[in-house]
Amino acid sequence: MTEILLGLLCSTGQLTADNDHGRKIVEPPKHLLIALWFLATPECYRSVSNCFGVTLSTTHKTVRRVKSALMALQDQFIQWPTGNKWLKGYVSCSSSLMTPYRDTGHLTPVEKKYNARHSSTRSLIECSFGLLNEKWRKLQYMDVLGIPDACNFVYAACILHNVLLASDGIEDGALLPQDIDDCAPALAEESVGNAAHTKRNNIAALL
Fold this sequence. Notes:
Layout: H1 2-10, H2 28-40, H3 45-52, H4 56-72, H5 74-77, H6 109-135, H7 147-167, H8 194-206
Helix pairs in contact: 2-4, 3-4, 4-7, 6-8
């Protein structure tokens, strides 16, 4: 698995051997190991640099290079839905997060179906985040500067997850969180504008 991943990363041209201020050159395999350790544990950059015997600046550069290499693989391992497929995984408005219909005992069949889809989608998303957080513990302890950098780390973790699935697979349920709240329809309906209600009604009619 490591050889496959290393080959993919090297093919991007983002990994280069680094001379650590006169010390032994950091080769691509060590780049990968440093980055994997950083993502898979809650340890800080300094702790990782001590563990691998490299300077703090080299650890920063190494993780950044591997992250860039992973981002370069996104077209191979990340597939975004198109057209009406967005309805299966994206139910937000431009101004606020879309909520389920409040169940007062008088929901129409269309509204009940929408709430069921909303709940199942929310559960799927929470399970996905649970998988990522269990495997890549750094996502639980983000110590990066800026939202774009944090988003790129999440993106890199998703790509790594998909590479593992494509190569070895993951045992069903092995990393799922213990308690997933499937009660999305019970959430209180926030006060949203007419545009949000209209969009929700349109989506419900298409399901």
